[in-house]
């Protein structure tokens, strides 16, 4: 007997979705197979990589990274331009940490103005991340969406408690895209997508952020949730789960002790910056392996590694 | 092809003699088909039927064992392509590559890292379990390398990466008692290789330039009646390696073709070409997708912390949450005036909460009662994390002798338990903590009056 390639055909496919405008439009999704399974069919637009920047000085970021960015981190607009020119990610994720009510509690107007300045300074598509305080984010996204009308950004993320405002303002009023955020559960992801659909928001305007965890911290739930979402979307042609998936890997991996423990605290572990990059790279590679279409990363070295990985697997 | 219960029933004597412990031959056949009982339980099968059945009811993917004593490893035996369907059985193993072309300093440094990286995470030992010893061309140096690793005190399994049968013969003299893997059989040398390993039943690693040639090679080796095999998924490119890993696993499990029903070997060190972070990325990818034995250039903490954590996550029972041992955990070196926090024994909760307490730098005792392995709200709803459970745990754990501080912080989500606990523990001041772990550092520092 001779070897015969095993091929799996699926009836469903992932929606195509576009971020940004003009020449710099970024496509997500479009595949009808599991990631890098080109022997089965069309792998779509492929994995997209974004770098995270903040609206404030990144006080808690690892020292080597702050040094790498130098003086630009004092000015979010300069920072965004630097990231675009120097590292050329697929998109920039602007995160409004300074708007957190438990922190600086910056006003909506201030945030929206900054978002507009950043959007005008760079060509790359933007992903806007909030404070993870749903009440604050509700108004924050509304204001930013209004100020960025026509820029076709992704609002990361609408949750069960604020999706009505975020999706209605973001998509219906100002023509942006919205990420539906659920916490690592296929049923919750499906339910939120259906609720957002009921606001007359079409699937082509929705991305899913199905929740994440760093490797070692319950990543098995993330892996199995995404596996099951993709099996339902592709195998059962479940239209309510056929959106591309974005995973903000950086938001969690830098806070766990493997990344956060300093060299004084854990001398046997070695260089803190390298540990942080390795945690970020491992989590990103793993979440891409199960089916995340886009990842948000913090360290340019992580982005470079994941870019090379994805290119090598194409 | 796997046989159905009905197929198996047709081969039974159909006498319903009950000697197998089942009321009818049909019931027995159904159980055999489901993998719940061995066909040999029936003593009335014809030899012919027995031969036919034991072949087709064997697992689709073979379990391969190597290494001796503490260093024993099992690979393979997987039954599903996705972990939510059924647990991944035998976790992938990491090997560190050493060769006779490396300088003594390089070898010493890698051995030192393998010794250094050895720790326990949620009850499981984390370390590189295999020394992959590669023959590059200097036989004396190769044998010296093997002796050096043996003398180093490392408790590892051995993998001899060598296609030269005469070198292997001498190398095996040194380590055959350790039951090593012999890696390097190809279409030219497989007959001699099989002859070399057959008596000791050592796993034999097969290597071929393409997947179809690998398939032919497996068939040839199987014709020599040898089935202790490992399959190299190729190191031509990451893309080819990934495709082959998926195809080998799928061919075995989905197409039910036992020719590829063996664990895989991936030389991530060669694919990463000396880039440490690429090595982490690829090793993660192959931990997710079907690498059984992953060969690394080195195993330092930068690589180990994410990779062992990921592996521990992926190789868990999807129906059972990971749990930590119920007890008091000291965080930030607490003393006899440190406060006490309580949370549940769900491993994820433990990690998130303990991480935040560490981040606060406030010394504290973290108490984990037996709460059924659920998250805070689930455990509370199930009655496993109640006022009486917490009070009983505090009284019986001996924490009252460890600290004079009588501040007991409970998760904000179970604030309703405060009264109950207070009634049972009148000496304690029960304090409601934040709803979310991420707010713990600020909460603890404010409580302790630290800025």
Automatic annotation (TrEMBL), chain A:
Question: Superkingdom of the source?
Answer: Bacteria
Q: Which residues form the CO dehydrogenase/acetyl-CoA synthase delta subunit TIM barrel domain?
A: 18-257
What InterPro entries does the record tag this protein with?
A: Ac-CoA_synth_d_su_TIM-brl (IPR016041), ACDS_complex_subunit (IPR051069), Dihydropteroate_synth-like_sf (IPR011005)
Q: Name one Pfam family in it.
A: CdhD
- What protein is this chain from? Acetyl-CoA synthase subunit delta
Q: What organism does the UniProt record list as the source?
A: Dehalobacter restrictus (strain DSM 9455 / PER-K23)
From TrEMBL, chain B:
Domain 4Fe-4S: from-to ranges: 1-59
Query: What keywords are annotated for this sequence in UniProt?
Result: 4Fe-4S, Iron, Iron-sulfur, Metal-binding
Instruction: State the source organism's domain of life.
Output: Bacteria
The record, for Pfam families, names: CdhD (PF03599), FeS (PF04060)
GO molecular-function term, one example from the UniProt record: metal ion binding
Query: Which PANTHER family does this chain map to?
Result: ACETYL-COA DECARBONYLASE_SYNTHASE COMPLEX SUBUNIT GAMMA, PTHR36214
Any idea what this protein is called? Acetyl-CoA decarbonylase/synthase complex subunit gamma
The species is Dehalobacter restrictus
Q: What is the lineage of its organism?
A: Bacteria, Bacillati, Bacillota, Clostridia, Eubacteriales
């Amino acid at each position: 007997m001779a070897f015969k390639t095993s091929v799996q055909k699926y009836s469903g496919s992932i929606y195509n979705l576009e971020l940004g405008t003009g020449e710099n439009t970024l496509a997500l999704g479009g595949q009808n197979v599991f990631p890098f399974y080109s022997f089965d069919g069309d792998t779509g637009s492929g994995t997209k990589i974004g770098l995270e920047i903040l609206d404030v000085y990144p006080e808690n970021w690892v020292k080597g990274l702050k040094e790498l960015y130098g003086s630009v981190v004092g000015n979010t607009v300069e920072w965004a331009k630097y990231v675009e020119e120097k590292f050329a990610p697929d998109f920039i994720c602007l995160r409004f940490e300074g708007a957190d009510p438990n922190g600086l509690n910056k006003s909506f107007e201030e945030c929206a103005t900054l978002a507009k300045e950043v959007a005008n300074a760079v060509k790359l598509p933007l992903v806007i991340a909030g404070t993870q305080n749903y009440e604050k984010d509700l108004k924050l996204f509304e204001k930013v969406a209004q100020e960025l009308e026509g820029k076709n950004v992704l609002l990361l993320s609408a949750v069960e408690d604020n999706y009505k405002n975020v999706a209605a303002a973001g998509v219906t009023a100002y023509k942006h895209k919205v990420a539906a955020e659920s916490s690592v559960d296929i049923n919750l992801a499906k339910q939120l997508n259906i609720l957002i659909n009921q606001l007359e928001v079409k699937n082509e305007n929705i991305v899913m952020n199905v929740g994440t965890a760093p490797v070692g911290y319950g990543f098995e739930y993330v892996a199995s949730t995404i596996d099951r979402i993709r099996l339902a979307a592709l195998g059962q042609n479940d239209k309510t789960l056929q959106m591309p998936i974005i995973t903000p890997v950086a938001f969690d991996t830098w806070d766990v002790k493997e990344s956060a423990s300093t060299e004084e605290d854990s001398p046997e572990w070695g260089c803190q910056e390298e540990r942080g990059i390795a945690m970020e790279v491992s989590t990103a590679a793993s979440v891409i392996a199960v089916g995340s279409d886009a990842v948000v990363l913090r360290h340019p070295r992580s982005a470079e590694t994941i870019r090379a990985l994805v290119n090598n697997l194409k | 092809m796997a046989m159905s219960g009905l197929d198996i029933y047709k081969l039974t004597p159909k006498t319903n003699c009950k000697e197998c412990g089942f009321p009818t031959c049909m019931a027995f056949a159904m159980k055999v088909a489901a993998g719940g009982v061995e066909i040999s339980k029936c003593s009335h099968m014809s030899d012919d039927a027995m031969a036919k059945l034991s072949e087709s009811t064997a697992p689709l993917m073979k379990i391969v064992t190597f290494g001796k004593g503490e260093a024993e490893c099992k690979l393979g035996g997987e039954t599903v392509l996705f972990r939510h369907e059924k647990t991944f059985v035998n976790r992938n193993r990491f090997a560190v590559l050493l060769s006779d072309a490396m300088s003594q300093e390089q070898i010493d440094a890698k051995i030192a890292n393998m010794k250094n990286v050895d720790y326990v995470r949620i009850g499981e030992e984390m370390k590189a379990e295999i020394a992959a010893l590669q023959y590059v061309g200097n036989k004396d140096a190769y044998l010296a390398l093997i002796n050096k690793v043996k003398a180093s005190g490392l408790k590892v399994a051995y993998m001899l990466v060598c296609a030269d049968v005469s070198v292997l013969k001498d190398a095996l003299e040194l380590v055959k008692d350790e039951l090593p893997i012999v890696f390097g059989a190809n279409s030219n040398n497989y007959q001699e290789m099989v002859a070399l390993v057959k008596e000791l039943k050592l796993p034999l690693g097969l290597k071929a330039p393409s997947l179809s040639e690998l398939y032919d090679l497996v068939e040839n080796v199987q014709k020599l009646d040898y089935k202790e095999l490992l399959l190299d998924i190729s190191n031509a490119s990451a893309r080819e390696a990934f495709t082959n890993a998926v195809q080998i696993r799928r061919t075995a499990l989905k197409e039910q073709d036992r020719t590829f029903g063996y664990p895989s070997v991936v030389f991530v060190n060669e694919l990463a070409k000396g880039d440490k972070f690429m090595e982490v990325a690829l090793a993660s990818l192959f931990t997710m997708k079907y690498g059984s034995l992953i060969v690394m250039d080195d195993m330092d903490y930068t690589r180990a912390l994410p990779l062992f954590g990921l592996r521990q996550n992926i190789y868990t029972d999807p129906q059972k949450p990971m749990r930590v041992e119920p007890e008091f955990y000291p965080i930030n070196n607490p003393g006899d005036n440190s406060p006490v926090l309580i949370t549940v024994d769900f491993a994820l909760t433990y990690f998130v909460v303990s991480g935040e307490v560490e981040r606060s730098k406030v010394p504290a005792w973290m108490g984990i009662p037996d709460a059924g392995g659920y998250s805070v709200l689930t455990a509370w709803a199930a009655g496993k994390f109640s006022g009486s459970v917490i009070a009983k745990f505090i009284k019986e754990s001996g924490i009252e002798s460890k600290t004079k501080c009588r501040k007991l912080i409970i998760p904000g989500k179970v604030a309703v338990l405060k009264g109950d606990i207070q009634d049972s523990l009148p000496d304690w001041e029960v304090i409601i903590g934040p709803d979310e772990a991420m707010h713990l550092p600020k909460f603890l520092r404010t409580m302790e009056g630290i800025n």
